[in-house]
């Protein structure tokens, strides 16, 4: 087996942070799509406003973004944009490219949007239309197309179209407002809240206003003119943008880039006990500071929160119970054995067996591979063990920046913890095993002389019995996972971005481990 290599979830969270900072950008798709992309020929010749921004990570110039606003025939506005930036993960320099558009009508109501993202081996294209009380989206990834529908009470905005809303506001310190918002990357919707916090006099003598925005746990701070033009933006993880000339914006800094993984590590506080043999640790206790204890997950018996103390106790394999498991020639299914399982609401079980745009559970390639991997298993535990071993040995450990997709990982056979988790969850659900995604922290001493906790993602499977849900880690080849897995959130990318509220603030002091 390959040596376990630390791969963390922070890359995909950072990507969400960047896209929330720089807006969502898109590209036209094929002629056979269900949702019609914006036709550039609908534009009229006329004045447009083009704005260039330099992208910075911890003050290092890593990329650029350019946006353009144009009037369209019949009224309304078309927002266009593209960006390119580079980020280092584990010393590997990776490039992320985005491009796209958003179209609003004469009243500023969003009509349609689309975007393209290219990162490493990842290619993601999404197109959306606001149709009455519904958003209809078409997502292309891994050569497959998904059609999604989201009910909305009011037409939302996306990142690029927010600019028009800001222009309508009265710029004065203390002014607050909110906007219905939809995030095409995480598929999350809600209210984006704004507060004007300060005023600044520019060298030209004109005034600009500092504005804070929040959508879920994603926060940004922007310096905008009364006309709504952004001069500077500051986001999570040390990401920022600054208004620049085109010539300056595209001048990417040389030298050694700041490594995203190392920059986001949570070092143990002074006075901590030394953590030896983390991969075999079954019981761990840490003191938490920097964030409120109610931000941590209390899920006994595996993870308990008591005041500012977080305690994790992972069972050994012999302590795990398992349901009987069988599979037929044409389908794969798990057979529940105890009354608790049989009495469980079907909707709850179905949620952990369902497909999603990143978890193509019902794709023939996924189902066929799942059937092949779990062949011969007579218990659910045996089936899970086969899946853990397969993903661990099959997927090459390589850092990746992008949105993971189980089918794409099956085809490329490489990636970090996000790709390992996406493939495992896709296969496990296809095999009829209720599975969910956890994200949080894991300890490693492989990235430097002094160990630290790094952001990480892993699956949890339902095995039944007293413990019921058990953490496994196909990135490390673990069943069950070790006790240095500190769970902070549960769910796909829409929940994982909550980690952004803890990056740079969370501190840990190791109290006990064995």
Q: Briefly, what is this?
A:
With 514 residues, the protein is of the alpha+beta class.
Question: What can you tell me about this protein's structure?
Answer:
By secondary structure, the protein is α+β, with helices and mostly antiparallel strands. It folds into two domains: 23-41 and 48-249, no CATH class; 267-513, C8orf32 fold (Roll). It is 17% helix and 39% strand. The chain has helices at residues 10-22, 162-167, 246-249, 260-263, 339-343, 346-351, 364-374, 380-394, 406-412, 417-430, 493-496, and strands at 49-57, 60-71, 77-89, 92-104, 110-119, 122-131, 134-141, 144-151, 176-183, 188-201, 207-215, 218-224, 230-234, 239-243, 266-267, 283-289, 303-306, 309-313, 325-327, 332-334, 396-397, 414-415, 435-444, 452-464, 468-471, 486-490, 507-513. The strands form five sheets. It has a 14-stranded antiparallel beta sheet. Strands 15, 23, 24, 25 and 26 form a five-stranded antiparallel beta sheet that branches. Strand 19 and strand 20 (332-334) form a beta hairpin. Helix 9 packs across helix 10 (417-430). The model is unreliable at 1-8, 20-47 and 328-344 (pLDDT under 50).
Poorly predicted segments:
1-8, 20-47, 328-344
- Give the CATH architecture of the largest domain: Roll
Mean pLDDT over the residues: 82
Kindly provide the radius of gyration, computed on alpha-carbon positions and rounded to a whole number of angstroms: 24 Å
The portion of residues assigned to helices is: 10-25%
* Cα distance spanning the termini: 25 Å
């Amino acid at each position: 087996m390959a040596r376990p290599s630390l791969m963390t979830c922070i890359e995909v969270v950072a990507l969400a942070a960047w896209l929330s900072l720089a807006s969502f950008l898109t590209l036209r798709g094929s002629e056979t799509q269900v949702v019609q992309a914006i036709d550039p020929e609908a534009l009229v010749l006329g004045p447009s406003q083009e704005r260039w921004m330099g992208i910075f990570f911890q003050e290092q110039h890593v990329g650029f973004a350019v946006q353009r606003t144009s009037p369209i025939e019949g009224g309304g506005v078309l927002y266009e944009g593209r960006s390119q930036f580079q980020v280092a993960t584990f010393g590997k320099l990776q490039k992320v490219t985005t491009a796209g558009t958003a179209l609003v009508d004469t009243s500023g109501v969003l009509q349609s949007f689309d975007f393209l993202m290219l990162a490493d081996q990842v290619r993601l294209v999404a197109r959306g239309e606001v149709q009455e009380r519904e958003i209809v989206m078409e997502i292309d990834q891994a050569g497959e197309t998904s059609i999604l529908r989201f009910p909305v009470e009011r037409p939302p905005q996306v990142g690029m179209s927010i600019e028009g809303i800001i222009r309508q506001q009265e710029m004065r310190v203390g002014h607050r407002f909110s906007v219905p918002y939809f995030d095409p990357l995480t598929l999350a919707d809600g209210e984006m809240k704004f507060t004007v916090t300060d005023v600044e006099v520019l060298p030209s003598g004109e005034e600009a206003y500092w504005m804070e925005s929040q959508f879920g746990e994603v926060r940004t701070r922007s310096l905008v003119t009364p006309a709504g033009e952004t001069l500077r933006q500051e986001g999570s993880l040390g990401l920022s943008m600054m208004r620049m000339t085109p010539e300056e914006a595209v001048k990417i800094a040389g030298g050694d880039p700041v490594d995203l993984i190392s920059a986001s590590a949570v070092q143990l506080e002074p006075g901590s006990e030394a953590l030896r043999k983390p991969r075999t640790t079954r019981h761990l206790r840490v003191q938490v500071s920097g964030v409120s204890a109610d931000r941590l997950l209390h899920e006994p018996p595996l993870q308990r929160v008591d005041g500012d103390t977080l305690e994790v106790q992972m069972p050994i394999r012999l302590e795990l119970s398992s349901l009987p498991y069988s599979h037929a020639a044409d389908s794969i299914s798990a057979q529940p054995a105890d009354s608790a399982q049989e009495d469980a609401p079907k909707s709850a079980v179905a949620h952990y067996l369902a497909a999603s745009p990143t978890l193509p559970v019902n794709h023939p390639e996924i189902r066929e591979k799942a059937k092949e991997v779990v062949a011969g298993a007579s218990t659910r535990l045996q089936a899970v063990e086969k899946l853990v071993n397969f993903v661990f040995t099959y997927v090459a450990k390589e850092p990746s920046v992008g949105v993971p997709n189980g089918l794409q990982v099956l085809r490329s056979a490489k990636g970090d913890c996000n790709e390992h988790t996406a493939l495992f969850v896709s296969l496990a659900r296809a095999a009829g095993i209720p599975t969910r995604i956890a994200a949080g922290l894991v300890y490693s001493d492989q990235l430097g002389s002094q160990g630290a906790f790094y952001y990480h993602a892993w699956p949890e499977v339902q095995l039944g019995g007293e413990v019921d849900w058990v953490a496994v880690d196909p990135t490390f080849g673990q069943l069950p996972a070790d006790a240095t897995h500190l769970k902070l959130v549960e769910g796909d990318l829409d929940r994982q971005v909550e980690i952004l509220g803890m990056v740079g603030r969370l501190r840990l002091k190791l109290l006990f481990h064995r």
